[in-house]
Amino acid sequence: MLETHNRSTSHDEDSVVRFLSHANPPPLPDVPGLYEAKRALEEHATSQKPEYCELFGSFTREQVGVVCEWLRIVKSWDDACIHEDELCAALEYWESK
After folding, report:
1. How many Å apart are CA 41 and CA 86, to the nearest integer?
2. In a domain, 35, yes or no
3. Which of 4, 33, 34, 50 lies 20 to 30 A from 66 at CA?
4. Do 22 and 49 form a contact (C-beta atoms < 8 A)?
């Protein structure tokens, strides 16, 4: 994906960042009238977290380093259309490993 970045972020990068943030899901914003939906989504994310932590726990140090480097590069893209909260959550998780 790094080699093909051409000033227009694809949905692939967004999906990868979202996947990498599952072990540390970012908080959802408060939306009036949607508190129950927010609670349900947060509960779902919390229930999935152990599964992703287990999966990501099998990554080697080298793989973790590559993931961190890729996330830092994505964060530097001026034209990235990736949700900043997911990117920061993913980077926080992976840098702590």
Report:
1. 15
2. yes
3. 50
4. yes
